[in-house]
Amino acid sequence: MIKNLLSVCLLLFLTITALAQTRQVTGTVTEKDTKEPVIAVSVIVKGGNGGTQTNVNGVFKLTVPDKPGTVLIFRSVGYKAQEVTLTAGQTSVNVALESNSEQLNEVVAIGYGTVKRRDINGSISSVTAKDLKDVPVSSLGEALAGRLAGVQITTSDGSPDASVKVLVRGGGSITQSNDPLYVIDGVQVENGLASLSPQDIESIDVLKDAASTAIYGARGANGVVIITTKGGHAQKTRVNYNAFVGFKKLARELAVMDPYNFVTYEYERSRGNTVDSTNFSNDYGNSYAALSQFKTVKPIDWQQQVFGQPAFQQQHNISITGGDTSTTFNISFTDDQQNENVVNSTYDRKLLSFHLDHKANDHFRYGFNMRYSDQLVSGVDVSSASSSTYNNLRNTIKYIPFVIPGLTQAQSDQELFNESQLAGNNLGLINPITNSNAQYRKNYQYVTDLNGYVSYAFNKYLTFKSTIGVDLGKQILDNFDDAVTFNAQINGGGLPLGGINQINTNTMDLSNVLMFSNAAANSQKHDINIILGNEFYNIDMQGLNNQFKLFPNGIAPTSALNQLNQGTIVPGYPVNAYSESHLLSFFGRGTYTFDKKYSLNATLRADGSSKFEPGHQWGYFPSASVSWRISDESFMKNITAVSDLKLRYSHGTSGNNRISDYQTQTLFATNVNGTAVFYPLNDGTTTVGYAPQNLINEKLKWETTVSDNIGVDFGLFNSRINVSVDAYQGTTHDLLIQVPVPTSSGYPTQFQNVGKTQNKGLELQINAHIIQKGNFSWTANFNVSYNTNKVLALAPGQTSAFYNSGWGVSGQPADFILQVGKPLGSVYGYQSAGFYTTNDFNYNSANNEYTLKPGVVDPSKTIGVAEPGLTKFADLNGDGVITTADQKILGNTIPKITGGLNQTFTYKNFDASVFINFQDLVSVLDASKIEFTNGYTANTNLLATENNRWHTVDANGNVVEKIVTVGSTQVAVGSSPDVLNAINAGAKVPIPITGSAQFYVNSGAVENGAFARLNNVTLGYTFRSQFLNRLKINRLRVYVTGNNVALLTGYSGYDPAVNTRTATPVTPGVDYSAYPRSRTYLFGLNLTL
Amino acid sequence: MKKKFIYRVLSLVTIIVVGSTVSCKKYLTENPVAQVGVATAFSNVANATEAVLGVYSKLSGDQGYGIRLSMYYTVDQDEMVGPANSAAPDNDRRDIARYGASASNAQLEAPWENLYTGIERANICIKYIPLMSAYTSGSATDQASLKRLYGEALTLRAQFFFELIRNWGDVPAPFVPSADQTTLYLTRTDRDVIYNHILGDLLTAESLVPWRTAVASRDERITLGAVKGLRARIALYRGGYSLRNATATMSRDADYLTYYKICNSECADLMANRNQHTLEPTFQGLFQNNIDAHTLDPSYEVLFEVAMGGGTGVADSKLGYYDGPRVNNLGNSSLTATPTYFYAFDPNDLRRDVTIAAYFTNLDGTKVLQKLIALPSGKFRRDWITNPAIAPTNLVQYFGINWPILRFSDILLMFAETDNEINGAPSAAAISAFNEVRLRGFGGNATQANTAATPTTYAAFFNAIVSERSFEFGGEGIRKYDLIRWNLLNTTITNTRANLTLMLNKQAPYNNLPQSMYYLNASQTLVYGNSLYAATPSATPTNNTKVAWVSSLTAAYNTNVAQLFTPNHGELLPIPLVSIQANPALTQNPGY
After folding, report:
1. What is the least distance, in Å, from the CA of B127 to any CA of chain A?
2. How does pLDDT run across B290-332, given as a tens digit for each residue?
3. pTM for the model
4. Chain A positions in Cβ-Cβ contact with residue B87 (cut-off 8 Å)
5. Which of these ranges, A98-102, B155-159, B564-568, has the smallest mean pLDDT?
6. Percent share of chain A, pLDDT over 90
7. A466 touches chain B (CB under 8 A)
């Protein structure tokens, strides 16, 4: 630190002395080709701080130090920078700048080859290392969100190993995976985002339209993400060290009731129920007035206890890169350690990668890449794909916010568990800290990628390249639940249970490509590129899952997991899994460009897949695209503001074969859909049976997407502003769907090729160099996408299907619907109409009965007996009764608008960037809110919004309203409407219902999910090279960064970017027990030796 | 030079293309490893046994006889009622008990699908086992084993179809594997056609499945006794009344006696082989010491039972948790005896306190008497479970208790009933069979059982059978279907409600019953403090607690029993909605 200060002082001193003697230099700057003057070129003195700009005639005037060797730097957007060394006494200098459409000359990967961005006919979004350098995060998914037009990235929640859903131009498939295909360094892999660190990325190109993805045929329909990792360069060997340290902090906290409000609510809730009110008086006493003592009881903020721990994190990345003209290399090692805000939760990852390229002679090149990732996530996730019972957030939010006076924490815990358990559905509460301590989880993931290529150039036109890659993935999931957990209580007979699940996924990819290009001929009119190739792709998966129960009480997790035989094997285990599939492909692509203006591109791929029966194994995926570079036409020459203009159109088909293997053969196994098949003869659990798992369909084939894309690219003011606009429409047909078949077949569904979906959208991408004046520059990248999605058809005769995302209580109505004419992600439920008021009732002052006025909707068939304050659903079909027929689509959870804005600023040696991403026209199903505002379980806390509920007791604790049984029917009785209205003048929300109807989805829980997130703010400083040279340091930059700094949203939950129920793609955007996102502050440095 | 390059290129491309195309067919063929195909599943006796166990497995678990088929679908009737409805219909098990189920009821789809999955699995076994080479040319042992497996698959399929028919009437009837069906969109087949088919299948199975004494190891697998007993039962139902889809009325075929004769002869056959199956010495012992104690009964009284175990809904039962008396307030005690059923028992009939457990058990083992309208069913009770016992604090809900489908007392009573029907009056053998069952119920005390007075005329004997079956099989899921096949369900429900009203109004014959009952505090066994058959004493007996007895009856309770039953409608459940939606060829049952 002292050294740094010293250097700053030194630099200041040097600058001052440099000003001692000066002279003036003048000159004109012109464009090299056209000889036109260039305006607003920045002219600065290298190493000094003087600077100016050219005027409208391209003329500049600048005072420079009067000494030999002074260097002037000329910079302007769209031109290559030029340095001119002034001789002693030189006062005039003329400069001709060479055009450099940097963006247009960027190389873009298109599958089995690359092209310059200016030559693209399809639709491709890209991100490069430059864009990612300011994003010190460990998750690639997090780094990419909002940066790619047409690519929607949703992280399931805030957990360190949260699953990342990447959706390219909306989802086409209904029940099958919509994940894009990942290709890393030319090799197809199954999950590209998990095994990479953002620091190792050179570029990411996402192929979006079918014409671009058709080269990947049967696997291209959901888009293709091509990732190129960093290699070496022909340069002196350099050592880079990048590191950051920092901490995370819970970004948002949900307000819950304080102790006093809690007890007064519980008092109110327990009235009229003998068991509950007895429990209440045992816990908190009998007197309402005495409850005021809870105003002073010490509150416990469970969210702080569970998520609030300071979480230190650090990441270190060291790389050595270099090479000469024949050999280049890059070795990189990353160590990433994070403590999480959630108790008992840590994240640790080590990544090692190695790149080697060698050019043996003019004909022969080869290269080798190796990547190894070792990741360990410890601690139980807050959310679980299972039912509500196993989702942990509820314990944190709903746990009693204090210790019951007179009891120890442990006694209070037991009391609360017993009482909250009474309502059923296993929705009792466990102390969240105890629960977390009792759930031991280790998720080990190891990925080894080995790939290499050989390339042989027959001559300057013809090259052959063969690429082979293997991707070996191994995952080990250790789990152990101690006696106190729900899992142990329900499934383990009250004793600990645990096990080890090991999954190996291996892929092998071999591609052979022959490439022809006439570029070397320097033809003025004709550019021809042709590739022909074939590819083999194998994927095999093996799993072994061992689960044991009845471990002795008190056993340590590590002891149990290392000597599993201390327990008893759970019936149906061990479960073995094995599947293998092969894909054989042939493909070709030809591009012809005439006069650098008119371009035609055609692709054809044929794929044969072992997933299908002979006769249906081969699929053919043709595509074509054309483009016209209008700006090169002579009639455009005079329109100088437009520096580039290109029109593109493409049409193509691509496919999706992602179904489980062997669906064309009857398969017998000892478990069906994860359920063990056994018949417990003599109480034994080892008499396993074979059962058929599937109803075969020999006619299965690919689902196919046909899409059209029209786009225009233009550059303005010498490419100072570059704009791309794309409009597309894609239709996916022959969808692979598990179609309901007559249940008398013995199977609920069968895989069939039926149904149709459509995606339409618009994308806009703008890159602008807004200011480049002297020492200051400001650039901005903006992208926004609009996508709509529609189901055009389902199975023959089927117009809708319901899906239950699986949270809540048993008998819960489905919360999602798939309906012809409607988009995917449609939330289904009741329209909330506030709550019943006294105006809805006729009051009989003789017997105090409230009876519904005629014409007011009757809730008794669905929610319960009507009373003032009861939640009210709209009677959509107008039959006067709330039934299942009154449900409708309440919102759509796939955002129609997504985008981002990144701005970077440099001033002298300072740099800054601000990145905002956003989404709009989207709903979130806040299922957590439904659970956290209902009164289903006794003695559990609610969100603070429920303080404004409709009250049924008055200020003195007298019951003023209740349900009683008169004869054989239930009716509401209570004080007069005036009394109830006076008590409830401030009521904003209904009475929290204690019945299961409170779990029903209603419009109150379907919230607007629009947000704008200040995702990343970075401020950096790069030290001056003169000083660093003395320390043998090439470059040194220090920075501070904030991630997820601010969130602008009307959403009431933790975070609207959420997707927790991902068992099928049919239920996106559900916020149930999501791991809260944190805010991160980091300090980092980039050092190059 | 140029030519040379082109040759090189061409040869390379040729090698790649030809090479990969030749091996392509093989490359694109993948066979499962962790799963097996049909050929392997039926390659030897061991694998075929696993395939048949896969058929058996559809009997057990939540969607089989673990809870739904055994406890949700079998109430309400005059013996037992399910949990009472709250204000709103629950579209769940309560609505089923009230005969108010709609097609979308949450508890219908899964059991329906489960039964058909069982049928599909059986169909596959029935197709492939006889095709196995070992079936015709294997060793004698292998042939015998495979024949037994084939017979078991036929028997299991018969049971699945029988369960479908008695709950849903005419149903789609696939008798070949679904993969071989020309269409999966099957219409409903007349139940008589299915009955005749499965009666034929069971006859075939009788020639394939050995007597239990011919089987070395003892377990719950089907032996000849089960095949014959099931054939008797199915023939009895084939001859009984049912709600016909075509006419929407309860009727039976004119030739019903043909089927009663089948039933009678199968029962007679079984009764002639007492060395195979006979009654356990005591009624309580069968349940307490065998069924609830996870022990197969030594007399093989239970001819056919569903094995339960594993501790989860996959293959276990909630017997003793969903029904039965609670322990430490754990359990649902959802099946409760009607007060009229409790009082229908003769005071000396030992079966009453086995069939009905009038108490809950505290953590310390002490008993708490329950109200008369809330007496839990008792044959499967947590505090009787041993081998191993369930700790009172244990939260588990699955106790591994087997579901008895067919007991030897049913054989005796079916024999007696059909004998009476065929001959117009009971023969001596019929009376003897009847008395054998009754006598055991009274602990062998002929005086108390009053077997001397067993009726000898047709109508009186029939009525005696109707009552005796209720005393013998209460809580075993038989009553509702018995009443339907006799076409007595409507009458019985009406009578039960009338009798409950008499009891509520303290009218004869219930006018002398106690309004409240006392029971001994802190006692490990239930000890009544006063008579069940005399007015409540005014003074509280020492160390006793008072519980509402007849006074617990309310008009609301009485109307709740089978509340929404209407004749010619309630005898069948609605075809579940999802299944109707998946197959437009299916029609709905009358009135749904």
Report:
1. 14
2. 999 999 999 999 999 999 998 888 999 999 999 999 998 888 8
3. 0.83
4. 860, 864-865, 970
5. A98-102
6. 49
7. no
DSSP E strand stretches across A518-641: 526-549, 568-569, 575-594, 598-609, 618-629
Question: Going edge to edge, which strands form the sheet with A816-819?
Answer: A800-803, A816-819, A826-830, A887-892
Q: Which of A608, A684, A995 sits opposite B309 (nearest CB)?
A: A684
Residues A202-245: pLDDT tens digits? 889 999 988 889 999 888 888 999 999 888 888 889 899 999 99
Classify residue A637 as exposed, middle or buried by CB count within 10 Å of its CB (0-12, 13-18, 19+).
exposed
**Strands (E) located in A630-678:** 642-656, 668-669, 671-672, 675-676
Cα A740 to Cα A759: distance, rounded to the nearest angstrom = 25
B109 contact residues in A (CB cutoff 8 A): 743
Please give the structure tokens belonging to residue B314: 């996959």
- Taking every pair of Cα atoms in chain B, the longest distance, rounded to a whole number of angstroms, is 124
Q: How many CB atoms lie within 10 A of CB B265?
A: 16
* C-alpha to C-alpha distance for B164 and B170, rounded to whole angstroms: 8
Phi/psi for B548 (5° steps) reads: -65, 130
Biggest alpha carbon–alpha carbon distance for chain A: 112
Under DSSP, is residue A558 helix (H, G, I), strand (E, B) or coil?
Answer: helix
Strand partners, A903: A780, A914
Backbone angles phi, psi at A889, to 5 degrees: -75, 125
- Find the CB nearest B28 among A609, A682, A748: A609
Q: Which two tokens stand for residue A18?
A: 């440099």
* Chain segment A920-949, per-residue pLDDT in tens: 999 999 999 999 998 888 889 999 999 999
Q: Are strands A95-97 and A22-31 parallel, antiparallel or unpaired?
A: parallel
- Determine which of B120, B163, B178, B330 to mutate to test the interface with A (most A C-beta atoms within 10 Å): B178
Residue B546 contacts A, CB cutoff 8 Å: no
B110 touches A: beta carbon within 8 Å: no
Cross-strand partners of A656: A703
| Residues facing residue A368 across a β-bridge | A356, A452
Dihedral (Cα; A825, A829, A834, A836), 10-degree rounding: 180
Q: Say if residues A953 and A267 touch (Cβ distance below 8 Å).
A: yes
SS3 label, residue A1023: coil
Are β-strands A181-184 and A224-229 bridged in parallel, bridged antiparallel, or unpaired? Answer: parallel
Start-to-end CA distance of chain B, whole Å, equals 86
**Please, which pLDDT band fits residue B10 given cuts at 50, 70 and 90?**
low
Cα A866 to Cα A875: distance, rounded to the nearest angstrom: 14
pLDDT at A991 over 80: yes
Which pair of tokens denotes residue A594? 């005439």
CA neighbor of A486 nearest in space, from A544, A442, A420: A420
Q: CA A270 to CA A252: how far, in whole Å? A: 31
Any chain A CB within 8 A of the CB of B577? Answer: no
3-state SS string for A363-399: CEEEEEEEEEEEEEEECCCCCCCCCHHHCCHHHHHHC
Whether residue B53 is predicted with pLDDT greater than 90 in this model: the reply is yes
State the smallest CA–CA distance between residue A143 and chain B in angstroms: 38
Q: What is the pLDDT of residue A17?
A: 43
Could you read off the pLDDT of B95-115 as tens digits, one per residue? 899 998 888 888 999 999 999
Strands of A12-57, DSSP E = 22-31, 42-45, 51-53
Of B27, B120, B219, the CB nearest to A584: B27
How far is it, in rounded angstroms, from Cα B149 to Cα B138? 14
SS3 state at B310: coil
> Which residue of A481, A679, A803 is the best one to mutate when testing the B interface, meaning the one whose CB has the most B CBs within 10 A?
A679
